[in-house]
Amino acid sequence: MSASPQETELKLVLAPGEGARVAAAPALAGIESRRSRFSAIYFDTPTRELSRHGLGLRLRREGRHWRVTLKAPSESAGGLHQRPEWEYPVPGPELDLARFADTPLASLPGAATLHERLAPILATEFRRTRWELAPQPGSRLEVALDEGRIVARGHASPVEEVEIEVLEGPVSAAFDVAESLASALAMRPEPASKLARGLRLASAARPKPVHAAHESIADAPDAREAARRIAAACLAHAQANESGVLDANDIEFVHQLRVAFRRLRSALRLFRQALHPGGDSAFADDLAWAAATLGRCRDWDVFVTETLPPLVAAHGEPAAGRAILARARARQREARRAARDAITSPRYGLAMIRLARWVSAPAEPPEGVEPLKDFASRRLRKGARRIAVQSAAFATLDGAGRHRLRILVKRQRYAVEFLGTLFRAQPVKRHVRALARVQDALGLANDCANALAHVRELSPSPAFLEFARGWFAAREAAGVEAAGRALAGAADERRFWRRKPAPAEAAPAA
Questions:
Q1: Helix spans in 306-420 (H)
Q2: Lowest-pLDDT range, 55-64, 374-383, 445-454?
Q3: Whether 189 and 299 share a structural domain
Q4: Of 38, 346, 350, 495, which sits most exposed with the smallest number of CB within 10 A?
Q5: Residue 120 predicted with pLDDT over 70
Q6: What is the C-alpha separation between 46 and 253, in angstroms, rounded?
Q7: DSSP 193
Q8: Residue 172, number of CB atoms within 10 A of its CB
Q9: Which domain covers residue 180, as residue numbers?
């Protein structure tokens, strides 16, 4: 068995071509490296019994030496993977499952005949360059650069990544090295193992955009831990859509990545009073920059696919319409390139590493903080009160005022989703639906203003611009009218959170 059954490593995917620059990074300068070639075969049954239980069984060759490895389900946050691992040397390319008698493999249904059902499902081939670091007394790390490919069912996918394994000492040391590397290289945390990526490759299924998962905080001890869990879920949502933005043309990937950052920034704002001041300062500005870049891409995606075609059709001049559409698609492609460049940039990667460090850090014990349900009720009351003030003046709001109201509604909707697991489910669902109706109606009105600005950017004829102004004015008016009705409906929703306590019983704010 290996020296430690517990593996802790930080995985980082490199932007294409960055592997050649890793050895020259300041964090590795002057440290001797070792190179070797690896090939590995992963095994499972035809019904994927191992992967369904979170297990990975691998036979790996390094030079003339063979090792068999079993990995158990991992705890993963960002790109940090922590999991039990059992590894043995073997004389050749053969599996001996008896070596895993005291592991989760032996607990699988039908374990006694498992060897009869196992078959190769995928393979990896790569060159590994390794450096061993001792950044401080009691801390030892292995930095590994892997360059090669994953092969499954006749398909191949490139591997160009860095793994920082904690051999001894705190996990924070791995993030220190990762930040140092990311200051010189374009890299970002990788939440998926080679096995997980190989299984996706083997399935040959087209990747699909991933929507937000609602994280339960019902058993969180305090607001700080709740914030960490929600931020981790938002980070996972973002990472699940990054590769789709880079490799696919489905505009929903951009939308979901943008939503992930919007939710994350809303969560950090929601919990700011409960967090240490400046705790998000290492990545907050960079998240805002990434969200803005994705926002521009999303705006052009919606304009080209949803807004402009019916406008062109209504205008009724095919030649002019084709020219406008061609120019709009060119702007859309530029915005998509900018979004992809952002994701593969050092600035983005460093921000995501810092965010992953933040969500992976051990939760601090609560000290003098108010009960989580009181915190949640206080924040929801405040959000509802701000919306009520703006709603009372809705008839007098101009476009900028309606946009500010929409932002308040969006933040309140996210707050209800984040904090809703502390309360009864049905009232929470009704409240989310009511806020979503307001957000959608206000969004229609706001999108009309943005769309008209996009039309102006495309150098249209005066006649087309005037037609578009009237077209969007009518749609904006319809959105404003719908928003008024939706606001009235939301105001009628019964509040599900706790009432404000009397002054004598009120707890101090976090």
A1: 308-315, 318-343, 346-360, 372-392, 399-419
A2: 445-454
A3: no
A4: 495
A5: yes
A6: 31
A7: -
A8: 13
A9: 6-203
Q: Which amino acid is at 504?
A: A
Domain of 108: which CATH number?
2.40.320.10
Average pLDDT over residues 79-91: 92
Task: Enumerate long-range contacts of 69-74, CB under 8 Å, 24 or more apart.
Answer: 70/100, 70/103, 70/104, 70/105, 71/7, 71/193, 71/195, 72/103, 72/104, 74/193
Question: Is residue 326 predicted with pLDDT exceeding 90?
Answer: yes
The mean predicted confidence, pLDDT, of the chain is: 92
* pLDDT tier, 368 (very low <50, low <70, confident <90, very high otherwise): low
Largest Cα–Cα separation, the chain = 80
Residue 501 in any domain: the answer is: no
Pair (428, 468) in one structural domain: yes
For range 376-380, the mean pLDDT = 95
Sign of the torsion formed by the C-alpha atoms of 27, 31, 36 and 42: negative
122 shares a domain with 260: no
Asked if residue 70 belongs to a domain, the reply is yes
pTM flag (> 0.70):
yes
- CB-CB neighbours of 475 under 10 Å: 18
Q: Are residues 190 and 302 in the same domain?
A: no
pLDDT tens digits, one per residue of 455-465? 999 999 999 99
Q: Map residue 374 onto helix, strand or coil.
A: helix
CATH number at residue 483: 1.40.20.10
Q: Half-sphere exposure (CA, 13 Å, Cβ side) for 56?
A: 25
Residues 132 and 253 in one domain: no
CA distance 158 to 194: 11
- Do 244 and 161 lie in a common domain? no
Q: What's the DSSP call for residue 82?
A: E
